[in-house]
Design a protein that fits this description.
With 818 residues, this protein is of the alpha/beta class. It has 35 helices and 22 strands. This is Alpha-1,4 glucan phosphorylase.
């Protein structure tokens, strides 16, 4: 069936949907509609929509049993799926009918959609990428299972109090989750701790047994992932940890009631909470246990599916391909070796060949603090058998290296899985690289830097194992669902095929770039989206913003390398000019920020405080706020992102060059008609190549210049001293102008900038301010700006996650989309 034909299958008429919703009220919500809350309606509608996926679910499960199809197992510690209901309605192609059914039932569909608590099972880009990939895998009919953890508490909710971030525990499960189906029969034991013991098997061979300290159980919770109008469903299979025995009767008999439930409490801790760090990692015991827990369940599950298909272990690499979403699941390599060698008695060489063929590894960051490594004692304590296996992998690998590069001890030290400089660590990126047949970066620049720098020795050893797969985002959620006005304007002109053929079809919009009536319609859409956002901010937070001003938006995790403080310095520059009555060339702007800081990341939290402090000062100063406003949108997540990307005129992608592996927010903004001000970093570079340099505001140092300047000795204090404008800006912060005279509060930030400025904020300051001036001038030419915006959207086809998934299929997984 062609994917752009509206499918009204059995059960999808307005009358049938109405009946189904009312039925669920009675049978699942257990109420009569006259006593219904909005949330009850949400549950009834969600059950009705889920029901419509179930028939496809059952037939899709058949494909998983089909031994001729390779399954992609996407292993990821994070899946930031976003709300399910709206997406499912779009992908099932039933939005018109549901709307009508809701109207006839006297309920407001938008209000119902707002009821859904988003499953925030991820921190940011990496988790959201996994979610986009599941959408594309299913839309392309590639059989896939997303394997992860069913955290009871996802990413914290952010509140802002007195300008500071306050973290509130996420409670996404408190009102129930209509999307998941628990499969109690799909459960696996996972061992932890203890020791190992050698023994001789029947054939006289030496074997090793793991005698764990304790064992927990992982239970499968499945969420259906619908493809776009293609009657295909894939699985998101998340593991919840439970006790093997939920109650210790021996302890209870002795009168130790608390002791009796202790094991249960401990076991459930494993999947209790998502670590709230974005790219930096703390070496926590619980974190390694989480990683091992979900990976072990997932591999056991895959081996069960292999058996179900009537295949043998030899068939594994042709039956399943595991993609490691960063190093978080990389212990899977040692775990598969353990399963094969210790439990299935496969000999080492065969097991290793099978393992390498089955795994592929995606690296998502070059930041040194994010390259996961585990201290040896901690690792040995939790996974004693895996450490032995890693030693064996390492010793065989290093002996190959010694043969290939005799006498090159330094290379051995650099490439070893064990870091032996000082305290010893297990380097997970090395394990992932050595144990995979393919390694990829997530943008062209990032892949280049991986090859040149972090994984250079490995690249030299096996250049053919390195690939680039530039990230992408799904146009279903990020354009059609969240920007319906733009989606219908586009479809009016070029038809609907772009929704599944972004690469080939979106470009057809180009021919309308000079069409004045189209331009007007384009501006109308943007204006309405901006007005909606202004209303929302007013309604929720009492903020006042002007939809006629330029909406300049930076939403992403707060991190020094992403340089929200550079943006803040530019705002202060404008503030300073306005106060000095140098307002010539200042275009009215609203600066909108959003993003969470890791709870223990003090400077990131101070940046949030600074942004809010500037915003408050400006709010109280009519001389300034007639030109500029600054707002911080609290609790930025997928649900709030729905209102933000589509309302932007300008997208801020201003990371220090070489630090942002790819970025995906940059893609969402540009696809929704924002122009980008950005550095030569990550996927910005490819976006600029596609949309054209004339339609992109590029500024600042590139990655090579950043490296050079750091090598030659960078002195931020001199930059400050030699630039009067910058000096005034920094001095204003120091003077307490934004902190009611408090000259201490922002000192740590200023000291960091003037002291070593690790992310070259001061170095790029002038280039950024100058570039922003060009933005202002360009924005004043309405027609030219609109044309640039249309061209941006038209040329963004490459950044569909469908293209990324096709790249993986062709180059890495060797799977043919259905
Ligand atoms: N990224 O979100 C994370 N978490 C990590 O631990 C490491 C990297 C981000 O991944 C995105 C998806 O590939 C990238 O676009 C982004 O640049 C990177 O920081």
């Amino acid at each position: 069936m062609s994917t752009d034909v509206m499918h009204i299958g059995p059960g999808n008429s307005v009358a049938e949907l109405k009946e189904s919703i009312l039925g669920h009220f009675c049978f699942d919500v257990g109420k009569s509609p006259e006593y219904a809350t909005l949330h009850d309606w949400y549950m009834a509608v969600a059950y009705s929509v889920r029901e419509r996926m179930m028939e496809h679910w059952v037939s899709s499960l058949e494909r998983i049993r089909d031994k001729h199809q390779k399954i992609v197992g996407y292993l990821s510690a994070e899946f930031l799926m976003g709300p399910h209901l709206g997406n499912a309605i779009i992908n099932l192609g039933i939005e018109q009918q549901i709307k009508e059914a809701a109207e006839q039932l006297n309920i407001n569909l938008d209000e119902i959609l707002q009821q859904e608590e988003e499953p925030g099972l991820g921190n940011g880009g990496l988790g959201r990428l996994a979610a986009c990939y599941l959408d594309s895998l299913t839309t392309l009919k590639v059989p896939a299972i997303g394997y992860g953890i069913r955290y009871e508490f996802g990413i914290f909710d952010q509140m802002i109090r007195d300008g500071w971030q306050v973290e509130i525990t996420d409670k996404w499960l408190r009102n129930g989750n209509p999307w998941e189906i628990v499969k109690p029969e799909l459960n696996y034991g996972v061992k932890l701790g203890g020791k190992t013991q050698g023994y001789t098997d029947e054939k006289g061979g030496y074997r090793v047994k793991w005698i764990p300290e304790y064992e927990i159980r992982g239970v499968a919770y499945d969420t259906p992932v619908p493809g776009y109008k293609n009657e295909t469903i894939n699985l998101l299979r998340l593991w919840k940890s439970e006790a093997t025995e939920s109650f210790d009767f021996q302890a209870f008999d002795k009168g130790d009631y608390y002791g009796a439930v202790h094991e249960k409490v401990f076991s459930e801790t494993i999947s209790k909470v998502l670590y709230p760090n974005d790219v930096s990692e703390a070496g926590k015991k619980l974190r390694l246990s989480q990683q091992y827990f979900f990976v072990s369940c997932s591999l056991q599950d895959a081996l069960r599916i292999l058996e179900l298909r009537g295949l043998s272990l030899d068939d594994l690499p042709d039956a399943v391909t595991f993609q490691l979403n960063d190093t978080h699941p990389s212990i899977a390599i040692a775990e598969l070796m353990r399963l094969l060698v210790d439990e299935y008695m496969v000999d080492w060489d065969k097991a290793w060949e099978c393992t390498r063929k089955t795994f592929a590894y995606t690296n998502h960051t070059l930041l040194p603090e994010a390259l996961e490594k585990w201290s040896l004692p901690l690792f040995a304590h939790i996974l004693p058998r895996h450490l032995e296996i890693i030693y064996e992998i390492n010793s065989r690998f290093l002996s190959d290296i010694r043969n290939k590069y005799p006498g090159d001890d330094d290379r051995i030290r650099r490439m070893s899985i064990i870091d032996e400089q000082g305290s010893k660590y297990v380097r997970m990126a090395h394990l992932a690289t050595i144990g995979s047949h393919a390694v990829n970066g997530v943008s062209a620049l990032h892949t280049e830097l991986l090859k040149q720098d972090v994984l250079h020795d490995f690249y030299e050893l096996q250049p053919d194992a390195f690939f680039n797969v530039t990230n992408g985002v799904t146009p279903r959620r990020w354009i059609k669902l969240y920007n319906p006005r733009l989606a219908s304007l586009i479809s009016d002109r070029i038809g609907e095929r772009w929704i599944t053929h972004l690469e080939t079809d979106l470009i057809n919009l180009q021919s309308f770039a000079d069409d004045l009536s189209f331009q007007q319609a384009w501006r109308d859409v943007k204006k309405q989206n901006k007005t909606d956002l202004a209303h929302l901010l007013k309604q929720r937070f009492g903020m006042n913003i002007n939809p006629d001003s330029l909406f300049d938006i930076q939403v992403k995790r707060i991190h020094e390398y992403k340089r929200q403080h550079l943006n803040a310095l530019h705002i202060i520059h404008l503030y300073n000019r306005i106060k000095q009555k140098r307002t010539d060339g200042i275009t009215p702007r609203t600066f909108i920020f959003g993003g969470k800081a890791a709870p223990a990341y003090y400077l990131a939290k101070l940046i949030i405080k600074l942004i809010n402090a500037i915003g408050e000062t400006i709010d109280n100063d009519p001389e300034v706020n007639q030109f500029i406003r600054v707002v911080f949108f609290p609790d930025f997540n997928v649900k709030n992102g729905a209102h933000v990307y589509k309302a932007a005129d300008l997208s801020e992608q201003i990371s220090t060059a070489g630090k942002e592996a790819s970025g995906t927010g940059n893609m969402k903004f540009s696809m929704n008609g924002a122009l980008t001000i950005g550095t030569y970093d990550g996927a910005n570079i490819e976006i600029m190549e596609c949309v054209g340099e004339d339609n992109f505001f590029l500024f600042g140092l590139d990655a090579a210049e950043v490296k050079a300047i750091k090598q030659n000795g960078y002195h931020p204090y001199d930059v400050y001293n030699n630039n009067n404008d910058l000096k005034e800006v920094i001095d204003l912060i120091q003077s307490g102008a934004f902190s009611k005279g408090d000259t201490n509060i922002f000192k740590p930030l200023i000291n960091s900038l003037l002291g070593d400025d690790p992310y070259l904020v001061l170095q790029d300051y002038q280039a950024y301010v100058d570039c922003q001036q060009r933005v202002s001038a360009a924005y004043n030419n309405e027609q030219a700006w609109t044309k640039m915006s249309i061209l941006n959207v038209a040329r963004m086809g490459k950044f569909s996650s469908d293209r990324s998934i096709r790249d993986y299929c062709e180059n890495i997984w060797h799977v043919t989309p259905g």
